[in-house]
Design a protein that fits this description.
single chain; mainly beta; 8-stranded antiparallel barrel; 2 helices
Length: 316
């Protein structure tokens, strides 16, 4: 009788408090009782849930993130009362747990990264010491930075969400690099495939080396909501395989000479990339850890590591 009275008192207090807190929203109370010796009563008031479980020796009351366990104490005239703190997952019933899992899965599916689209920027290369200054013996490799442009077309995209605004994004794309030489020269694959300077027979209006790669970026992306827009930060790696390369010289009289060759370029390359964007626009930078030319074929024995900096526009 003492325990029954205590249960009635606690339930009355909980229901009254919950009812006062949710009366404005229109509270609903539901009860469920089992006919066996272990009865379970669930009381729902507004958005709060109170669960009472009772058997012949104990009573468990769950309210919010608290759990009260009342156990008969035969050595004392008063029952034993224990209070524990519960996590959100502990408070969920089966239906709520399923709803939470469904919500998480839905959020993962809703994640959409920023990759598919077009990119344009400038490209150049660094030496082993991360310097833009080239040794004097290969000054013919110096570039006209304002005309050495890169273009990327990312034509597929796959988003793998970890949460609503966090996930991975990957896809396939094509990368073009134009290395426009600053001097009145071009390059040629000399003896044993070593890259050497090519001296033309006249004055050049334009001279460049062009490469084309099929690339596979794999990025980790974090999106930061701001009002109804999103900032996005992503970083990762880019693997690529060379599809084509050629050199081109344009003389003052507009005569053109184009040469298709592999120019001892590395067939495969790997780079690190990062981008910071706002909605569909982003600034990106990529540094390739693989040298442009094969190690034993480099001009003047100097490894050159390409990099790109530019703007990206993605398509939803």
């Amino acid at each position: 009788m003492k325990r029954t009275g205590l249960i009635i008192f606690l339930l009355t207090c909980i229901i009254c408090v919950s009812g006062q807190g949710s009366s404005a929203a229109g509270s609903k109370i539901h009860e469920k009782e089992n006919s066996d010796s272990n009865s379970i009563v669930r009381v729902i008031a507004g958005k709060e849930r109170v669960i009472v479980e009772s058997d012949s020796s104990s009573v468990k009351i769950q309210a919010g993130n608290r759990e009260i366990v009342i156990t008969d104490n035969y050595e004392n005239r008063f029952p034993k009362v224990e209070i524990d703190k519960r996590t959100r997952e502990d408070n969920l019933c089966d239906d709520e747990e399923k709803d939470l899992k469904a919500e998480r899965e839905w959020n993962r599916r809703r994640f959409k990264g920023h990759l598919a689209g077009i990119e344009a920027g400038f490209n150049n290369y660094l030496t082993d010491g991360y310097s833009v200054s080239l040794p004097d013996n290969i000054n013919y490799m110096s570039l006209h930075t304002g005309k050495s442009l890169s273009f990327n077309l990312n034509f597929t995209q796959l988003s793998i969400g970890l949460a609503r605004h966090i996930g991975f994004v990957t896809g396939l794309g094509v990368n073009w690099n134009n290395y426009v030489f600053e001097g009145n020269n071009n390059i040629v694959k000399g003896e044993n495939g070593v890259i050497e300077m090519l001296n033309p027979d006249g004055v050049l209006k334009k001279s460049k080396l062009t490469t084309m790669y099929l690339q596979l970026p794999v990025l980790f992306e974090l999106q930061i909501p701001t009002d109804h827009k999103r900032l996005n930060l992503s970083f990762g790696t880019i693997g690529a395989v060379k599809l084509h390369s050629h050199s081109k010289m344009v003389y003052d009289n507009d005569d053109k000479i184009k040469s298709d060759d592999d120019f001892s370029l590395n067939m495969l390359r790997l780079g690190a990339t990062a981008r910071l964007g706002y909605e569909n626009f982003a600034i990106y930078g990529t540094y390739y850890m693989t040298p442009l030319f094969k190690t034993d074929k480099t001009p003047g024995g100097t490894n050159l590591f390409p990099y790109e900096i530019g703007l990206a526009f993605t398509i939803d």
